[in-house]
Specification:
The chain has two helices and ten strands. The protein is an alpha+beta fold and 144 residues long. It has one domain: Virus Head Decoration Protein, Chain: A. A five-stranded antiparallel sheet has the order 1-7-5-3-4. Strands 8-10-9 form a three-stranded antiparallel sheet. A hairpin with a 4-residue loop joins strand 9 and strand 10. The longest helix has 10 residues. It starts with 35 loop residues before the first strand and ends with a strand. 29% of the residues are buried. The mean pLDDT is 83.
């Protein structure tokens, strides 16, 4: 039985020496009403998308795609990691956060893993202003 969020249940055949792991949480606060999220459909063929990946709507298909350009088209951030598979798979459902306080280090790590920024960089000023957001470096938050 799982006692708390983040407890690990090893899959059958997993070696017992693997230590506990925790899910990466994007939100700084998970209190009800402190954030807005909505369900979207991700375009297939993008591979693995990490938590905090910036998403925009693909005008050709109306599915959501990762914004590797880190541009002003960003509409929200992926709440949980997702594997969109390869071309030919069915589209995947996901949640994006469209308002709230996010852990900025998680967003920066997602941008870095997507090769959308160089080391140490974060969201572009255009993306921040489009989302009416601000970065609080002391609290490690992106608030929008």
């Amino acid at each position: 039985m799982v006692d708390a969020v983040g407890d690990v249940i090893l899959a059958p055949g997993s070696p017992a020496r693997i230590g506990p792991t925790t899910d990466v949480e994007l939100l700084s606060s998970t209190n009800p009403g402190s954030y807005l999220q909505r369900g979207v459909t991700l375009k297939v063929g993008q591979g693995y998308l990490p938590v905090g990946a910036p998403l925009k709507k693909d005008s050709g298909t109306n599915y959501y795609v990762v914004d590797t350009a880190n541009s002003t088209a960003v509409e929200g951030f992926l709440r949980y990691a997702a594997n969109t598979g390869v071309t030919g798979d069915i589209p995947k459902a996901a949640n994006i956060v469209t308002r709230g306080a996010l852990k900025y280090s998680v967003v920066k790590a997602a941008l870095l893993s997507l090769n959308a920024v160089s080391s140490g960089s974060g969201l572009t000023s255009g993306a921040i202003s489009t989302l009416n957001g601000r970065v609080d470096t002391v609290r490690d938050e992106f608030i929008f």
